């Protein structure tokens, strides 16, 4: 929690006065697990959910105060696995970095990389039962109803 959340809050509180004066930008690098939790990732997911909530609230507070500081939330999906399979699905370190830089430079409110994870985040709330089914399949868990 210290590294994955509190350090972001502390750095932001220190940088915000200068960013306000210069009309600057904050680029926050987060994870798909901050939007779609998976099994056995509770502490990490909690920290990434906290990031999303904190910076979402900060963005609204700055808007209400008419402060021109852009906050770009970058949601990167499964970087460890994708980097292990670099090139197979077209996900590379260079493309990931470029997506983050492009999002910050254009002052986008959000960046999803790879883009298909944006769809996963949208579908997440709409189809909770199939999601539970996929999780059980992933963990090879049987329930009384299916046994």
State the shape: globular
Which structural class matches the secondary elements?
A: alpha/beta
Rg, Cα atoms, Å: 18 Å
* Cα-to-Cα separation, first versus last residue: 39 Å
Mean pLDDT rating: 81
Order of helices and strands: HEHEHHEHH
Compact overview of the structure:
This protein has 147 residues and is an alpha/beta fold. The protein is built from 6 helices and 3 strands.
Give structural notes.
A three-stranded parallel sheet has the order 1-2-3, with helices on both faces. It has helices at residues 2-22, 42-64, 79-84, 93-105, 116-126, 128-139; strands at 25-31, 70-76, 110-113. The longest helix has 23 residues, at 42-64. By secondary structure, the chain is an alpha/beta fold. The chain is built from six helices and three strands. The chain starts with a helix and ends in an 8-residue tail after the last helix. The radius of gyration is 18 Å and the shape is globular.
Task: Indicate the topology.
Layout: H1 2-22, E1 25-31, H2 42-64, E2 70-76, H3 79-84, H4 93-105, E3 110-113, H5 116-126, H6 128-139
Parallel strand pairs: 1-2, 2-3
Helix pairs in contact: 1-2
């Amino acid at each position: 929690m210290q590294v994955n959340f509190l350090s972001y809050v502390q750095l932001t509180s220190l940088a915000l006065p200068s960013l306000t004066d210069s009309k600057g930008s904050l680029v926050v690098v987060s994870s798909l697990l901050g939007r779609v939790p998976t099994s056995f990732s509770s502490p990490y997911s909690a920290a990434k959910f906290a990031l999303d909530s904190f910076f979402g609230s900060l963005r609204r507070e700055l808007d209400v105060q008419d402060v021109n500081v852009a906050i770009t939330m970058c949601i990167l999906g499964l970087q460890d696995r994708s980097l292990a399979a670099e090139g197979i699905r077209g996900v590379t370190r260079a493309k990931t970095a470029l997506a983050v830089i492009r999002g910050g430079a254009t002052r986008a409110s959000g960046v999803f990389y790879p883009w298909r994870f944006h769809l996963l985040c949208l579908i997440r709330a709409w189809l909770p039962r199939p999601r539970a089914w996929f999780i059980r399949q992933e963990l090879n868990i049987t329930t009384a109803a299916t046994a």
